[in-house]
């Protein structure tokens, strides 16, 4: 079972090791709910009813006016958010040549590290790090220059992590990379190919090459239009990559159908796989994919440590909690779990404790606010009592104080909770 669970307008199951680190830094930390009550104020001032805050009032008014989502009158697409890269202009070749020439001859990295303990060499259109990272993110090599880039890497044996994110290389670039991998399958451990217009057909070509590698540990594909038809190729990549630990499929338009197919294949696969972390944010998951996901989480062969699962409002909250409770029976049950119910914001990696909210993202991604009612109180209480939960952030909710009391009691009796926060929409509700 994943080690951290974060409920946003998406359900996101995040990195367990982070919570272990937090726990290690704060041994035997008392309940934050108790601390807040002793202080006579909320544990999060921004949402405290005791602290005047126009931003909080704005959110309460907005969410209250929106009310519960009605799928019959306000349907949401299950294809996922559009997988468009960030807008960039293709670089001219002259600006890239110095870097191409350098990596084809030598890999010197002479400047001292600015923030991290890693030497680097900075070019106009790339950064080369002593730890083997070749970082060209947002440098926009484009389809016209990707061939030269891959050619310049042919004679190189130093680079281990290739990061041409948001370089809009398209099918031409995908083929160039596939050809490179066929010739040097064990060159790169990390491939960060986010935002490159890699479509279904291009991805299939990439997978054909990538599965020959024995060293790929991380593959990042966010904001590429893979579509539902890529589900089988995603499974092939997972099945045949012996050390692939992290797979990023955020905003790839896999959709409800594609995710359902992927997890059906994973649930039926009876051999151990290396995958430990999978990102599926903003891919359009709905009710159809829930059962296959649950089946895989219950599988004795599932060894996931973190799982980002976005769920649209076509999935009831009770269904999400049921999915989590199912996964609790997994042999790999975690010792740390985080639940967060709050507003949607894109690419969240922890919770709103560590991330500022950008309200426009709700509109940008075509999402709606959570509306977690008293009907979910018992299910939430059971989750708190049945798991080693460390973080519970319900955030804005129409739950009554009566329903919330059972959750308060469960949190106060918990020996593992490190952080709890709820912001009732009811006037006078205790945060």
TrEMBL record:
Lineage: Eukaryota, Fungi, Dikarya, Ascomycota, Pezizomycotina
InterPro entries: Leu-rich_rpt, LRR_dom_sf, RanGap
Gene3D superfamilies: Ribonuclease Inhibitor
Protein's name in the database: Uncharacterized protein
A single MF term (Gene Ontology): GTPase activator activity
Pfam families: LRR_6 (PF13516)
Organism: Pseudocercospora musae
